[in-house]
Amino acid sequence: MKGMVYDTEEKHGYIYLVRTREFKSLNRPIYKVGRTSQCPDTRIGRLHKYTKGSEIYLILQCHVDDVGLIEKKILEQFCHRWNPGPDGSEDFIIPTAQELLAAKEIIIAVMHEFERKRI
């Protein structure tokens, strides 16, 4: 981010929750959990590959060594709670605003769990 100083030796990853433009335009409550490993001083390129009009609901930074494990744990918990969407295992049907809030809380809880282990 502009004006911030980062330790260039420490690398970060990001976990995000997005609804693509296609699902948004069809008014379908389908969301994708994703991850990317990026240096924080660059734009998060993976998110810019989603089509214009996609909605990003949550972006959280984590240690790069954990990003794949964090995503896996989040996906496991989502699989137990919501049905998969039509486009693959990282897409989930989250039908209500209350459940969308619960999805965000799951992501944050998993991130906290990994941060506690790392510290």
UniProtKB/TrEMBL annotation:
Entry-linked Pfam families: T5orf172
Bacteriophage T5 Orf172 DNA-binding domain boundaries: 13-94
Protein name: Bacteriophage T5 Orf172 DNA-binding domain-containing protein
Organism: viral metagenome
Lineage: unclassified sequences, metagenomes, organismal metagenomes
